[in-house]
Design a protein that fits this description.
The complex is a heterodimer.
Chain A (H helix, E strand, L loop, with lengths): L5 H17 L3 H25 L8 E9 L2 E7 L1 H20 L8 H20 L3 H10 L1 H11 L4 H30 L4 H5 L5 H18 L8 H8 L2 H11 L1 H14 L1 H27 L4 H20 L4 H32 L10 H4 L1 H14 L6 H16 L1 H26 L6 H4 L6 H19 L2 H18 L19 H11 L2
Antiparallel strand pairs in A: 1-2
Helix pairs in contact in A: 1-2, 1-4, 2-3, 2-4, 3-4, 3-11, 3-15, 3-21, 3-22, 4-5, 4-6, 5-7, 6-7, 7-9, 7-10, 9-12, 9-13, 10-14, 11-15, 12-14, 13-14, 13-19, 14-15, 14-18, 14-19, 15-17, 15-18, 15-21, 15-22, 17-19, 17-21, 18-19, 18-21
Chain B lengths: L2 H19 L6 H27 L5 E11 L2 E9 L1 H24 L6 H19 L4 H19 L6 H32 L4 H7 L7 E4 L2 E4 H16 L8 H4 L5 H10 L4 H8 L1 H5 L2 H22 L5 H21 L3 H28 L17 H15 L2 E2 L3 E2 L1 H15 L3 H26 L9 H12 L3 H11 L41 H26 L1 H8 L7 H6 L5 H24 L3 H8 L1 H8 L4 H32 L1 H16 L6 H21 L1
Antiparallel strand pairs in B: 1-2, 3-4, 5-6
The chains are: A mainly alpha, B mainly alpha.
Chain lengths: 513, 702
Amino acid sequence: MTGFPILSIMLLVPALAAVACLFLPAQTARWTALAATLVDLALGVVLWTSFDVGGAQWQFQEYSPVFGSFAWALGIDGYALLLIALSVFLMPICIGASWVAIEKRVSEYMAAFLFTEVLMIGTFAAQDIFLFYIFFEAGLIPMFLIIGIWGGANRIYASYKFFLYTLLGSLLMFIAMLYMSITAGTTSIPALMAYDFPADVQTWLWLAFFASFAVKMPMWPVHTWLPDAHVQAPTAGSVILAGVLLKLGGYGFLRFSLPMFPEASSSLFWLVFGLSAVAVIYTSLVALVQSDMKKLIAYSSVAHMAIVTIGLFAFNAQGIEGAMMVMLGHGLVSGALFLCVGVIYDRLHTREISRYGGLAINMPRYALLFLLFTMASIGLPGTSNFVGELLALMGTYQVSTTIALLCTTGIILGAAYMLYLYRRVVFGEIKSEEVRAMSDLSGRELWLLAPIAAVVLWMGVYPESFLAPMRKDTQILLARLDRAKPAGDSLPTKGKGIVPAAHAETTAHGSAH
Amino acid sequence: MHSILFIVFLPLVAAIVAGFANKSFGATLPKAITTGALFVACALSWPIFLSFVLGDAQASVTPVLHFIQSGTFDVNWALRVDALTSVMLVVITSVSALVHLYSWGYMSEDPDQPRFFAYLSLFTFAMLMLVTADNLIQMFFGWEGVGLASYLLIGFWFRKPSANAAAIKAFVVNRVGDLGFMLGIFGTYLVFDTVSIPAILAAAPGMAGSTIGFLGYRFDTMTVLCLLLFVGAMGKSAQLGLHTWLPDAMEGPTPVSALIHAATMVTAGVFMVCRLSPMFEASPTALGFVTFIGAATCLFAATVGTTQTDIKRVIAYSTCSQLGYMFFAAGVGAYGAAMFHLFTHAFFKALLFLGAGSVIHAMHHEQDMRFYGGLRKSIPVTFVAMLLGTLAITGVGIYGIGGFAGYHSKDAIIEVSWAAGSPVASMTGVFAALLTSFYSWRLMFLTFWGTPRWAASEHIQHALHDAHGHDDHHAEAHHGADHHGADHHGDAAHEDAGHAPAVESRGFNEIPTGTGGYHPHESPLPMLIPLIVLSIGAVAAGFAFFHQFIEPDAGEHFWKGSIAFDEHLMHAMHEVPLLVKLSATIVMLTGLLIAWAAYIRSPDFPAKFADTFQPLYRFLLRKWYFDELYHFLFVRPAFAIGRVLWHRGDEGTIDRFGPNGSAWLVQVGSRAAARLQTGYVYTYAFVMLIGLTAAVTWAIAG
């Protein structure tokens, strides 16, 4: 696609606004940030509506060489489109969530957020492996600052932990990228996606990428940075962390590990399955005993992300598309849940679950929206997460019934910890005068949560809008993975096929709609 | 446009309107909208059912919207209407409409009525989506939707800790069943490459003899699929093992118990087994398991029902037991009989629950039957309605002539299971019928006969004191909601699931008698009309429709293949020995006699009996210790393991050797390095930058 360089402009708008914010007073910076993110949202809508579903794999491509083979190469497929859409959708909401909660260094804060947006869109749109790396890793910096400067009491420890974990993985990935670009003689991601590395090399490269993506995901046992980061981050930081940054790992698996190293993915899928199954049960049980709201939701995120990883490595359409749907759904729902926590944190300044209770009495609108997101989080049909979880687990079942069983226990444990949370916060009697004095959602808060609620229901009732853009990409990916597809453990044999006379009639009626 | 669209979506629209309107326009508008929508849906449903009864209707599928497509997995929202659906349609819309109407009276003092009515309509919508499903995914949507509504309604009085606990318990226990259902769906898709119900049912008979790998072992394919799906049915229909949520669900308002936890939602499991009956027919092992679980539940729940003193709990266990009947009927292959009992049970059990609600209403929210007695003269309409319900559930009828609803359906189950070669199930059913008759009459005798024991009730005392200080305690309760918050938050909120009575507690005969000057009032008209209408159902639903449901020729004509209807079995049902046919009537009379002897003639007998058989009595009173066992096996370990994993796992191991460990290493290392280095951050950063640039250049240029 030539002509209007929409992707570059989507990067440029928040970048310019970010620089401008640094020199503006607080209130102007707020409005600038909001305007810039809304412009990007509008551009995102244009991007989606002009995306040719079922057309070329790569669209809106831009290419300008920088030096050597390194190039400013942008372009998106369906997966990237959906994740960019998620990012630009959540960004104005994050700015809105920080409107009054952030009081110090507002201009810098807004700039940090806008830079985050640039880097996230860049990560999803990059078509050069080093351009990707720069966006991918640089995304750490504004997030590091957001946690470290505007975070809670223990913010230094949390930001340090966050940085240490993610840096370790990315160094190995960088070495792997150097090797790949030299061996294949190209830095173009689409070219590398079609390049066949020898199987033994694939394993090492796969592991190097895995080190980075597993941390970003995060997968058990390298998940412990997430609860701390969430707890210390300001509300909007948590939203963007859960909503978009956690999707980078899944996107990485989808963009690099699977298409570039099919054989390695196939021989190591058991590793992903094993870690994911442990994660679902382990982190769900840990979530059950949390007394801090944000920590509880953070642990639940780890469990949800495990569903993403098993889905991705199921090597079938349901698994992969389900994983993408879980990513999108989780991005919205956990983002919304963090907003819900933020709403009451702003009023009472504590995340202790036991301090609340009875909010349904004085905050009925809040109770309703919180209920919707709670139900979406536990995958109630009719909400976004159900479609994703159903497909991902269904895909997994075709590979391993045992792992599917273990991971499906997440629907029981998830219901237990989320409903237990909801009960303690919203139901029961009001226990203190401070809680009684809490007011229901303000207009601003309603405007933050209502759009997410609408999309959550849209994704749950008519997910076709979201499945259609990635259908072709899934086909291409599966065609590439087909040669390495692991056999499932079900292997049903054919029945005897004898239809007893007594049933013949039933059958005839049954099939006549 | 097919009328089914209105039947299904009117309740949804009504729920949304009522929910968002909430209290903005007063309580009457949401109540009128939801109730009106349900009566319209009901009026549209009966013609559909009757056209199937008359035999001139054909099955139809009305497409609504594309749902999910991923690979070969393709699902649409669609509304299927066939004979099986039509039965469920009339059950759901009729009972729901009547319960809506009943709630005008029952909930009149509650400040949150719009929310209550919105939930009721939402439930009805989800239930209708379940029964009109043309594929397993939509069925699961309805399945979970009714679970949500059930959760919300059990916890409707959200200020009460016990209601919240019961709501969570209901949802989580149901999720255990849903785990099975989901795996069943996955397996079904894997085997059949579709989740469309007609397509699966067409292919199922051909799968006999196929094997499949599951959890590392190989099993018969259809057995695995059916058992997984049946686990879902066990959860929703509160079968033995996953039944523990149902008695606690009585924390919800009584109309909810009548609609959701008696007439409709809990029968969804039975509906699912019947809907998928050709699948189950392909696996004798699975059917054997269904029969076993059904019969075991039937017996278990009936035994527990004999000892409970809370009126709603008795009826709850009765429901559990009756669901057992339906399952073992399905297990022996008599799906028509299972659906027939589902149909009649919906009327008489809703009647009993609403009747109980009327008694509770009259007795100022006292639920313990030990504090009732002699009520038949005070609330005659309720009494007659409950009496008709009891006659229906105990199966009163005369051989060769006919009888109340339960006579036709329950006797059919006992006979057909004998004919199908399951005498053990059949005799279990007979014994459970004895217990049914006993606990049903026990309920009637304790409530309506004997001398009043009202004065000893705290609730009655409360009412009497209220009446002293204020002319109208209703008005007081209403204003109280504003002033005292919880204390008087609608008197109905005092309702609960009945606390597990202490073993040492008094028998009814030891309660001092006396009215204390309390005058129970008959319920208002909105509550009495549903009782009267349902009474007609309890009397007539059996003989009016038994031809269509269970007779060989009429049945085949009616069901039109929507269930696996076995004509030969239904013929054989009539060939069973006369003693089997009469057994249900004999035990019904025996149970009545025992109850009469124990609760009317010599009222000190139950206490003596309980004393003599203390361990057995305690075992039954404690509901076979299921709650205690599960708490010990699952709930406590889950929290304990969670704490261990958090403190010992995350903090004690991963963090200790991970980030904190490396931090320690860095500190030690940097102390050594500091001697060589300048110690300024920017020098390090500069060195790193140079290194990085060099690496990138080397990679790209090379």
